[in-house]
Write a structure and sequence with these properties.
Number of domains: 1
Shape: elongated
Largest sheet: 3 strands, mixed
Radius of gyration: 21 Å
Number of strands: 5
Number of helices: 10
Strand content: 5-15%
Distance between the termini: 30 Å
Order of helices and strands: HHEEHHEEEHHHHHH
Bound molecules: zinc ion
């Protein structure tokens, strides 16, 4: 998400054991003395299957050139995004009731898409201005639904900064970050289920499993943000915007956070200072 909380898309919240396995595990619990407990074999099987499914779905993203693991196709991504969009709008007080402002956002978004590789993707881009005046946020759903709150918009100083935010969000779509995260969640869920089935299912084992899952997903969140920053810079340059203004956006975000900063390692969001450095590098790399 863009705190630049940009996109957190919750696909599955809970880890659950396959129901069919539960009674069988109980039955074997007392009869497995002296042999490898059957629950260990089942647990290992669940983990191996999850790993196989994850690694066998490897593809190179043709617009970013990065190898990634994805189990959804573009049509499914678009469908998930369209289905979730009304709910996301509702959570932020609906859409902002100013057509002129909305038109401006559409125009900038279209300019970014039409002048960059985003144009070649199968995604359908829509840009929504949300009414929420207090939340400073922007995010993207898979498949091209992009949102910015009025609370963030009103803090911006110029059109290029808005282009920077929209470019960053388009970057999440083109980078297929939500789809990637869904595949990762499925993998972690498989591993957690395997650990719980293979162990005694105690609270300690559950906690350990959850912790592993959280750490894995956290790191991915940071990488997504940095890749989106880089893509945002690329799209801005392609469309004729000043990419330096994305640094201005970082300063606004930093200020809005009011000096409260969690150490970067523990945060899903990279430190704004770190992001500014990476943005400067990206500008050098892509400016012609
Ligand atoms: Zn982001």
């Amino acid at each position: 998400m863009l705190q630049f909380n940009f996109y957190i898309f919750r696909y599955k919240k809970y880890v659950y054991l396959p129901k069919a396995l539960k009674p069988r595990i109980m039955a074997f619990r007392t009869s497995s003395k002296g042999r490898i407990p059957i629950k260990l074999i089942i647990g290992a099987g669940i983990i191996l299957f999850a790993l196989f499914k994850y690694w066998s779905n490897t593809d190179t993203n043709e617009w970013t050139g990065r190898k990634q693991h994805i189990t959804l196709d573009a049509e499914q991504e678009i469908a998930i995004g369209l289905r979730s969009a009304p709910q996301m709008a509702q959570q932020h007080g609906g859409l902002y009731p100013d057509q002129q402002l909305q038109d401006k956002i559409d125009q900038i978004g279209r300019k970014l898409v039409n002048n960059s590789v985003a144009r070649n993707t199968p995604y359908k881009y829509d840009f929504h201005l949300l009414r929420d005046p207090n939340t400073i946020n922007a995010f993207a759903l898979p498949g091209g639904q992009v949102f910015i709150t009025y609370g963030l918009l009103k803090r911006l100083e110029n059109e290029d900064q808005l282009a920077g935010i929209l470019g960053h969000e388009i970057g999440h779509v083109v980078g297929r970050h939500s789809a990637e995260r869904i595949a990762k969640q499925d993998l972690t869920q498989g591993i957690i289920s395997g650990i719980l089935v293979g162990s005694d299912g105690s609270a300690g084992a559950a906690q350990t499993a959850q912790m592993i899952g959280n750490l894995v997903n956290m790191k991915y969140g940071r990488d997504d943000e940095l890749e989106s920053d880089e893509l945002g810079v690329r799209f801005m340059i392609d469309a004729g915007y000043q990419p330096e203004e994305l640094i201005g956006v970082m300063k606004i975000l930093k200020q809005a956070a009011g000096g409260q900063r969690v150490p970067e390692f523990q945060s899903t969001h990279p430190d704004p200072e770190n992001r500014m450095e990476k943005i400067k590098e990206a500008i050098k790399k892509y400016r012609k």
